[in-house]
Amino acid sequence: MVVFIIRRTLMMIPVLLGATILCFGLVDFANDPVQDRIFEIQQSTGEPVPQTTIDALESAWYYDRSVPERYWLWLTGVGENNGDIGLLQGEWGPSIDGSAMKIGDEVSARFWITLRLVLFATLASVGIAILSGVVSAVKQYSRTDYTLTFLGFLFLAMPIFWLGSLFKEGAVQLNKLLGTNLFQTYGSGTTGFRGNGWEVFADSIPYLIVPTLVLMLGGYAAISRYQRASMLEVMNSDYVRLARAKGVRNRTVMRRHALRTALIPVATFAPLSLSAAMGGAMVTESIFGWRGLGVYSLAAINAGDTFAVMAYVLISGLVVLVGVLISDILYGVLDPRIRFE
Fold first, then answer.
1. Count of alpha carbons within 13 Å of 132, Cβ hemisphere only?
2. Average pLDDT for residues 15-28, to the nearest whole number?
């Protein structure tokens, strides 16, 4: 197992490197922050921007270099001028927003906020989806099956921004009806709250409920459909029929034989839902006023902040690759025929 994990981890490096090269080129092609800043200055002053100012902007943001050179600087920091770039040296590059806070500091502060939301939503969506898919398959063509199928397609069809707005307004009205503040709809925690890790987590629970529910429902809908189809296929297989013919209790057949096999296809899809949750977090955090990584990356994309966007790409890529690694490990756990060595 240890050798397998090490081998797969090493395989992640060229994949992640290729993804960053592709994304860096696309982001650089789509944006030119120097020209955008020149336009802003001209609009505010009404006068042409001096060449010295343009040169200073290009030097500060490394736009006086070619795209390959900028990528090399972002990755290694070798050949830089200002000591603020080089991922391998712990520097994420300069941000164009003029903030005194470095990109690395912003990312480290916001990542745990987003990770908390994404993990809770993913775990809840996978658990509920598996339960829903199994019940739908066992009770095929019943009212329960039709109801769960309808709900699955309903949430799958709902845009997350509309679903988030709907649940936010519903939580506000429910708080008014109950006369409580059980469901917090803005922010990720009490402003200015200080405490240890568990105290901060306990404080964040009322703020987690509604955003987690919104992010969970989109992932739940897709996984439940996979689980239902997989469970139906396994239930109609020969070895399940043979077990029933031998008089094995139906509950035992479902738990020991059918469910374990039916989980194998879902094990491929479920961990990858982490990446979908990371994308959905952009919208969810915007709706509920979270200062997480999703909101930060969305602002960076709108501003054409190349190095800030690359920080999000790198972290998202790591999350996806970790999900793939978890999926591979689950394969071996669920199917004894698969060997890690």
1. 23
2. 88
